[in-house]
Amino acid sequence: MSFNRPDIIRPPSEWRSYFLPLTSGCSNNTCTFCAYYGSKLQTRDVADVKGEIDALALFTGSRIRLPSVPGVVYAIAQDWDGKRIFLQDGDALVYPFAKLMEVLQYLNEKIPSVERIGTYATPQDILRRSVDELKELRRLKLGILYTGLETGDDELLQKIGKGVTSDEVIEAGNKVKEARISFSVTIILGLGGVERSQKHASETSRVITEMDPDYVGALTLTLVPGTPLYGQRERNEFHPLSPFQSLEELKLIVENSSFSDCFFSSMHASNYLSVRGKLPQDKEIMLKQLAKVLAARDPALLRPEFLRGL
Ligand code: SF4
To answer: If you measure from the C-alpha of residue 110 to the centroid of ligand 1, how many angstroms do you get, rounded to a whole number?
Structure first.
């Protein structure tokens, strides 16, 4: 079966990257809120990946386009500065280890200007790898892993079909840190709905504090048609937060978590308000910004619903 190139779904910080697919879909396709729910994982042939790396190297070096290469490769490569690569798709770390090493070695050899390679990884993908294996990947410039914690509330983790406990996500984070790979963690505001909001906020604060990652990215829940959570809302079994309630949750999380050195942001397009800063030093500034918007309760201060993205 031929490989279907996935759409680009990426962390905000990867906007300058070249997007190189190794897989399509997600190996852990059971999360009830996620657009990847029920997706079929496809892994791409190494030869096919190498062919794209060859085309990219040729284009980067001499702007030569090959007619056999899909136009999307050149569309992405057009403005690429040759420095960052983001491996697609939902969890490219699931790509078989020997093949992943082969691809990264080839990439390093063909495009030595590459400084950092990043990818999404599920906690399960990370736990399958030893610290030594992660160090090998680090040596080949895998510099950042983006992992979804979503919530620190274990009951909610189970409810949303995440397939891991908060302790396992913490363990995965420790391995990544030991391998000296930057670790970025995603949390989702509103994931517990109205009823679990307090618990979601307090448990998430507890777990991200224990993880002490380099980055935390807050997203706001967007209900995706076709997902089980969307169905629950339709049946009035799930009660989503209002935009201001989601900001209250964000404020609680910032207030109650502590880090040694973390860039915390809600810059993702799904959020109603973009707040960011280095923690611990910017904590007061961020809390004041949130308190001000919460006190004003003016919808004009928020990103309008139609401009929110996944
Ligand atoms: S939330 Fe992450 S692990 Fe779960 S289905 Fe989506 S991409 Fe996969």
So the answer is: 31
Confidence of residue 308 (pLDDT cuts 50, 70, 90): confident
Pocket of ligand 1 (CB under 6 A): 26, 28-29, 31, 34, 36-37, 90, 122, 148
Q: Whose CA is nearest to atom 4 of ligand 1?
A: 31
Mean pLDDT score across all residues of the chain:
96
Counting from 1 in the atom list of ligand 1, the atom nearest the Cα of 37 is 5
- N- to C-terminal Cα separation, the chain: 29
Alpha-carbon distance of 39 to 37, in angstroms, equals 6
Q: What confidence tier does 94 reach under pLDDT thresholds 50, 70, 90?
A: very high
Q: Which of 244, 192, 248 is nearest to 221 (CA)?
A: 192
Cα–Cα distance measured from residue 58 to residue 162, given in angstroms and rounded to the nearest whole number: 41
CA distance 37 to 30: 5
Q: Which residues pair with 227 in a beta bridge?
A: none
Q: What is the pTM of this model?
A: 0.96
